[in-house]
Design goal:
alpha+beta; UPF0236; ISLre2 family transposase
């Protein structure tokens, strides 16, 4: 301990200003931690390898590896172990949770991915440079987030993820919503994030209103998002005595029939048309008579169709210019309200008296996605967008740490598929055994044929052929 203190004092004396002195201290402590950690890993490697030997593994060789932790980079030597079935294991890597092909620890993966979900990758790189003793470029940040997103998606989308759930919740009301969000894609592509959310209601927390037990599912493929939210609902809830209340804007893929499928087995399903989109449609179609917009909204709130018809007739009588275009707007509004009228019926009129009712919140929950993925004209690849979507949803569902705490805990079919792929890759990369051969023989037609005859002309053509390729 005295030697460490003496070395630290010498390091501090060498610098002439406050900032440089503190930076030197930070580097000194990082190197000290790396040295101590390296010695600790040697002891741990010996202990965890003993357990593997009991399972039939033997030490094959020792190899070196460098991994970056939050406190700095550590280079250590660990045992590579193999059994009679040629299965390879690194006991120390498994104990530390350091995955194959990753140069960073699990905590680095978590923190960098979490920062990447709320700020651009260049800012994440700058934050790492400012707060740690090591550096990471914004390209490496992007690669790390993509790898983390793929790692989480492999585990969170497998059918066996709900195998451990025994008891299901029984709630009187369950609130389900769905909507899509457009984002910019590279190469002039337009990507759409399809989102579903489910919750048990809302409650007051201080001055804020929060959803009770929310779960979010997002995907670039709507069918996949629908499948994931359906698996979640069926695994966690017993809908026998539950009234499912759904809400959407009625766009393609978010019709009532979709929510009917998601609420299979429930006591009753009540579908609503999203109020925000209805009000926006009214203001858009009645832009030429703004004084009647609130009257139309109130008529819908009171579920009074004669009043709605009266507002439409009054609006028609007030048309002053562009009569054809305005009449078309009124006609479209009339058909829109008529088509969606069953879904505009208020909750109380349907017998839903839940004080914790939570309808029409999906527009506000878009913000976690839109703030990160739509600002400043950002463009995404499908791979990068899907990885970011998975990271954001896992953080919101409070599942992120749970997935990263699993070290290669993949389902059996995924493990078997990876083994088959590796075996095929090794077989393709093997060089074939060299076999001697005589090469191609030159064909020739026997003599005795007239050169003017067809067979003679054919024989002459064969002799003129170049039997040796130019590249030899």
């Amino acid at each position: 301990m005295e030697s460490i203190v003496t070395d630290l004092v010498e390091v501090m004396k060498k610098e002439t200003n406050f900032l440089a002195r503190e930076k030197a201290m930070m580097v000194f402590f990082a190197q000290l931690l790396a040295t101590i950690t390296q010695l600790a890993f040697q002891i741990l490697d010996a202990e965890v390898s003993t357990q593997c030997k009991k399972e039939g593994f033997q030490v094959d060789r020792k190899s070196e590896r460098t991994v970056t932790f939050l406190f700095g980079s550590v280079t250590y030597v660990r045992r590579r172990m193999k059994n009679q079935a040629n299965e390879i294991r690194y006991p120390l890597d498994e104990f530390l949770g350091i995955r194959k092909s990753f140069r960073y620890s699990s905590l680095v993966l978590r923190n960098v991915s979490q920062l990447g979900s709320i700020m651009v990758y260049r800012h994440v790189s700058q934050a790492i440079d400012c707060l740690t003793s090591w550096r990471m470029s914004h390209q490496n940040v992007q690669q790390l987030v993509v790898k983390t997103g793929e790692l989480i998606q492999t585990r969170s989308t497998h059918e066996s993820r709900y195998d451990g759930i025994i008891s299901k919740k029984k709630v009187p009301y369950l609130y389900l919503e769905g909507d899509g969000v457009k984002i910019g894609g590279q190469k002039k592509q337009s990507l759409e994030i399809h989102r579903f959310q489910v919750c048990e209601g809302s409650q007051k927390v201080g001055n804020r209103t929060e959803m009770i037990a929310p779960h979010f599912v997002s995907h670039l493929n709507r069918q996949q998002a629908q499948k994931e939210i359906m698996n979640y609902i069926q695994a966690h809830y017993d809908l026998t005595n539950t009234v499912v209340v759904s809400n959407s804007d009625g766009g393609s893929g978010y019709e009532k029939a979709v929510f009917d499928e998601l609420s299979l087995g429930c006591l009753r399903h009540e579908h609503f048309r999203d109020r925000y989109h209805v009000h926006r449609k009214i203001k858009e179609r009645l832009s030429f008579v703004p004084q009647l917009q609130n009257r139309m909204i109130q008529a819908i709130q009171h579920y009074n169709w004669p009043e709605v018809q009266l507002v439409l007739d009054t609006s028609e009588s007030l048309i002053e210019e562009k009569e054809a275009e305005t009449l078309e707007q009124l006609r479209l509004l009339h058909h829109y309200l008529q088509r969606n009228w069953p879904y505009l019926k208020p909750r109380k009129a349907r017998g839903i008296v839940d004080p914790k009712a939570c309808i029409g919140t999906i527009e506000s929950t878009h913000r976690k996605m839109t703030y990160r993925m739509k600002r400043q004209g950002r463009l995404w690849t499908k791979t990068g967008a899907q990885a970011m979507i998975r990271v954001i949803d896992s953080l919101r569902n409070q599942e992120f740490d749970g997935w990263l705490n699993q070290y290669e805990a993949l389902p059996n079919d995924v493990v078997a598929q990876e083994k088959r792929w590796k075996a095929m890759k090794r077989w393709v990369q093997k060089k074939p055994n060299f076999q001697t051969h005589e090469g191609a023989l030159k064909g020739k037609i026997g003599e005795g044929k007239a050169k003017s005859a067809p067979l003679g002309q054919f024989a002459k053509g064969l002799e003129q052929l170049i039997t040796t390729p130019n590249y030899i």
